[in-house]
Amino acid sequence: xxxxxxxxxxxxxxxxxxxxxxxxxxxxxxxxxxxxxxxxxxxxxxxxxxxxxxxxxxxxxxxxxxxxxxxxxxxxxxxxxxxxxxxxxxxxxxxxxxxxxxxxxx
Length: 106
Description:
Blueprint: H1 12-49, H2 54-96, H3 101-105
Helix pairs in contact: 1-2
């Protein structure tokens, strides 16, 4: 059975742009998690090393995690919003382009 198949996949440039956006967001989230964990460990370790009690060291670590975590959350939220808006604008632009004669016949 021979049948002709017309591909409906997007062009390579559009596909590459779509594939790179989620990678950027995932990388930013991963780096943010690493920063929060390393900050908590450093604050706890340095606090204990400087003679603070365990309770004070844990309180300092908790506060640093909350503050750094909120800052990084805002950054990641803004980044995700920008990526989604950019992707929506690209899709809207693609939909606004007129169909070629080959696509109209299908």
